[in-house]
Amino acid sequence: xxxxxxGWGKAVRLALLVGALLALYVLAVARHDERARIREQPxxxxxxxxxxLARYGLAAGSGYASPYTLARxxxxxxxxxxxxxxxxxxxxxxxxIDDLQGQLAADPSRERWNSTRFVRGxxxxxxxxxxxxxxxxxxxxxxxxxxxxxxxxxxxxxxYDQFTGILLPYELRQMQCYINSSxxxxxxxxxxxxxxxxxxxxxxxxxxxLRFGNHYAEQGIDEVTAASTxxxxxxxxxxxxxxxxxxxxxxxxxxxxxxxxxxxxYPAVAGPNAFNQQSRNNFSFVSTILPGFLCRNMPLGEEGxxxxxxxxxxxxxxxxxxxxxxxxxxxxxxxWHQLMxxxxxxxxxxxxxxxxxxxxxxxxx
Amino acid sequence: xxxxxxxxVARRAGAVGNELLIGLTLxxxxxxxxxxxxxxxxxxxxYFGLYGAIWGxxxxxxxxxxxxxxxxPNSTQSAVIGVTLLPVAPQFGPDYIGYxxxxxxxxxxxxxxxxxxxxxxxxxxxxxxxxxNGMICGIxxxxxxxxxxxxxxxxxxxxxxxxxxxxxxxxxxxxxIGNMHxxxxxxxxxxxxxxxRQFDTLRNWAILLGxxxxxxxxxxxxxxxxxxxxxxxxTANISPAGFVYPSLPLFTQEAMPDIISIIPGAVTLALLxxxxxxxxxxxxxxxSGQFVDARHGIFADAVSNCVLPFISALPTxxxxxxxxxxxxxxxxxxxxxxxxxxxxxxxVSFFGEYIAIVPVPAMAAIIMVVxxxxxxxxxxxxxxxxxxxxxxxxxxxxxxxxxGLFGAVICxxxxxxxxxxxEKAHPNITLEGNVLRIRGxxxxxxxxxxxxxxxRANIDERFDELIVDFSAVHHIDPEGIRWLAEVxxxxxxxxxxxxxxxxxxxxxxxxxxxRKERRRRQAL
Lengths: 365, 524
Known about the structure:
The complex is a heterodimer.
Chain A: H1 2-40, H2 47-55, E1 63-65, H3 67-73, E2 78-80, H4 84-98, H5 108-111, H6 131-134, H7 150-155, E3 159-160, E4 167-168, H8 170-181, H9 192-207, H10 236-251, E5 258-260, E6 263-266, H11 289-297, H12 308-319, H13 330-352
Antiparallel strand pairs in A: 1-2, 3-4, 5-6
Helix pairs in contact in A: 4-9, 10-12, 11-12
Chain B: H1 2-8, H2 15-41, H3 46-63, H4 75-85, H5 94-116, H6 118-123, H7 129-146, H8 148-151, H9 163-177, H10 180-197, H11 206-224, H12 227-230, H13 256-261, H14 263-288, H15 294-307, H16 320-328, H17 335-350, H18 352-356, H19 360-374, H20 377-383, H21 387-402, H22 404-423, E1 428-432, E2 435-442, H23 447-458, E3 466-476, H24 478-488, E4 493-497, E5 502-503, H25 511-523
Parallel strand pairs in B: 2-3, 3-4
Antiparallel strand pairs in B: 1-2, 4-5
Helix pairs in contact in B: 2-3, 2-4, 2-17, 3-15, 3-17, 4-14, 5-14, 5-15, 7-19, 7-21, 7-22, 10-11, 10-19, 11-19, 14-15, 14-16, 16-19, 21-22
């Protein structure tokens, strides 16, 4: 009797295992179908993307000639055109760069393909650093030097990471962006998110007629090294004063950003929604990138007014505000940073407003 | 001597075929691991993993008398190599390889130190069974999670922090963006393996049959749909690697500052290897019934790891997953481990083209099966009978996923040490004639000492009976009870407990028994 009973138990366990595998398989088929449907849907563009892609004349067809190049050089170089599927991929890529969080989308998780799953908080968008939807131009319509242009980055193709010496293809360089702001998982390099953004970057390079393998001035960022300053060290106190004067009106006195109607008008530079401790934007991790960004792009409307020393001081100050731990800091550091982010803003607010009700407006979030 | 001979000879006639089958299975299981560990974790070319598998397995099998021992490259060690050397030089470069060889040699020398300084080696015994089992179960689950992306034909993300979160995200990625052809191949492999395992006659062939089924389906797809459409990765052809590739560790004057900076990494590497070897050997001693002092394992590892850096190989240490596979396949002699190395050498040298068509998803499915095998419910249940053991087991299991493998070793060892301190153990055992007297505690920390003396007494031909006197024992932990139960099954052994005033074995009421009892009392 016993072997028989044992046989039944075994059979039931086996059936359960096989059943679970088949159920997962059916689920996978369903999710794949849904994904295929999303990729065939027409794309609703954000206003920014609509303007940019129309200006660059994106349309399906057998050949593509960039109106931008035609206007600037008087010559139209006809390149291989885009299929309807390519056009949708480029449009989705543009949407992701402009509005990663899907704040302008009717159905964010469908239209932005789960992109929020891979970044921390509710503020981060690619456009915050890669301004002008990855193609920032001056008033004269010329690409701005050191503006982290996606087009110029794409034509660089594979490059060596300057810190680790590892050869990084464009897809893995996108991954670096997710590391800067991620919550512990980067999209798989085969993910549609990466493919769509690659398609968009590639289209930009074609539209701007950037040549493969060349280095352009708009690629990367103008890093502000210590050598390019007054060489008196990075000043936290001066940074704090400058931050209060120039940055706090948008990013908030504690750097927690400005949110109106659930939309992040000005992103957080500290707290749970900001870039993390191991981001290259973090001054104490890489000290030249955030100052470079500040000198080029901040404050909004008064770009170029800060000196190199100002930028380094502000960067130093901002990086000492509480922010999420990096992915490689480990769970204990992450816990500590979470605690700091919860406690410090309230604590600072309490201390600054202690018996001084008139400063309530300037302190806190 | 007799033991040494018996470890070589298969226990029953006709078992040689089974040993060779185990060897072939192990060679196939270790192949993807060797390639993956060296390229994705250690940042070294794949031949490092292969030579580590071939020569590491062979050296340890020759030097280690245990029947159930399987060396070769190890995921934890490979990860430590990558982490240690990342700041020193660019991966896969000539400098990196030089520093890696230096790191391996340093680790081997440190292991030799553990062999020559006895108290250091003894210190490794403090990794208890619940710690080791917790780690094994954790690693088993981790291997399943880690196989999700290759199972679905997706590239593996190399950033490996926040393991449970990444496991969940990889699972979602399999469902959403996985390559359906890859998933089909993986599922076929998995189902064939799992179903054939249920039949006793096919049990040991299950993994090979699974691989064959997956490969056949992949070949069918390639013929009908085309590789360009399926995009399923296949194993690379590794036959040009050759038998051996001599190399020299880097010890130049300019490199000295960097070499000094990797010494902590070398200590970690050495310790991780030894801890795994000692823990795995202790576990297998209990399961297989063959007692081999863990010092043999330390000796085999240390000597191998001092030689391997000179032939471009990853360091070796015991592999929990392959050893549990050996145990479940019921290995009877060292032939299995040795033949696995030779099979792998033959596979790499002569069948490279055939291995090259094995699809990666099928390999991932096999790693999943091996991972699931490592989670043994009977072990887990035993640990949950006793609260401190349950806590140590759970902590060790969870810390694999929260703090990583090295974190688990540290966390588990600290807990085990705290537990040891808690139990206040002072093993004090003596062997007088045929009386093995134990004073103090019988617990996991004292068991290795007790066991070694017990086995020495057990093979003593002068006496036909062995009396184990634990009158002065004031604590026996569950592991000790399990050991005593094992000892109780040995017909030669009689337990004595003086405080009770009588023999513990009921059936020894005969006259000769009484005479012996009297003699024993005189001896006492």
